[in-house]
């Protein structure tokens, strides 16, 4: 499975949507995904971000979690709000813990419903 098959990133207006489908991501792959997100955030003046982890298989190892924590810290200085869609409450709890550890809990939140994501981001619907 390639990085493109594990994670996709799209931007519409000032909103970025990224979809993750594999927990089997190496540190190098996670770094490549994070670099692409950073590049697009700066290029498109992204202010809102949706991370869709509902199809994510497995969990990331601690080294990959470190890459995501670093990305969250970077994002919080540039993006007004980041919402992660999770397929389970356990995934939501893991991501909320990472956000608290990174000190980003005011801007980076996890949810299990699209309705809650839309309310948090001030959007009518997720259009990706």
Strand content: 15-25%
Regarding quaternary structure, how should these chains be classified? single chain
Summed up, the helix count is 5
Please tell me the overall pLDDT. 89
Whole-number radius of gyration?
13 Å
* Broad structural category: alpha/beta
* Annotation, overall tally of beta strands: 5
Strand order of the largest sheet: 1-2-3-4-5
Return the string of H and E elements.
Answer: HEEHEHEHEH
Specify the biggest β-sheet. Answer: 5 strands, mixed
Low-confidence stretches: none
Indicate the overall shape.
Answer: globular
What's the end-to-end separation, in Å?
A: 23 Å
Portion of residues within helices: 40-55%
Structure description:
This protein is α/β, with parallel strands linked by helices. Helices cover 46% and strands 20% of the residues. The chain has 5 helices and 5 strands; from the N terminus they run H-E-E-H-E-H-E-H-E-H. It has helices spanning 3-6, 27-44, 62-76, 89-102, 114-121, and strands at residues 7-12, 15-20, 48-52, 81-85, 108-111. It has a 5-stranded mixed beta sheet with strand order 1-2-3-4-5, sandwiched between helices. Helix 2 runs parallel beside helix 3 (62-76) and helix 3 packs across helix 4 (89-102).
Structural features:
alpha/beta, five-stranded mixed β-sheet, 5 helices, 46% helix
Compact description:
The chain is an alpha/beta fold.
Topology of helices and strands:
Blueprint: H1 3-6, E1 7-12, E2 15-20, H2 27-44, E3 48-52, H3 62-76, E4 81-85, H4 89-102, E5 108-111, H5 114-121
Parallel strand pairs: 2-3, 3-4, 4-5
Antiparallel strand pairs: 1-2
């Amino acid at each position: 499975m390639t990085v493109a098959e594990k994670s996709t990133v799209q931007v519409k207006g000032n909103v970025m949507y990224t979809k993750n489908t594999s927990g089997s991501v190496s540190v190098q792959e996670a770094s490549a995904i994070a670099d692409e997100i950073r590049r697009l955030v700066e290029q498109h003046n992204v202010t809102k971000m949706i991370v869709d982890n509902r199809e994510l298989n497995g969990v990331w190892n601690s080294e990959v979690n470190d890459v995501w924590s670093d990305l969250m810290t970077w994002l919080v200085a540039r993006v007004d709000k980041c919402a992660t869609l999770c397929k389970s409450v356990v995934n939501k709890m893991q991501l909320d813990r990472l956000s608290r550890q990174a000190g980003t809990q005011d801007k980076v939140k996890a949810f299990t419903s699209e309705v809650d994501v839309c309310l948090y981001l001030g959007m009518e619907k997720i259009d990706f």
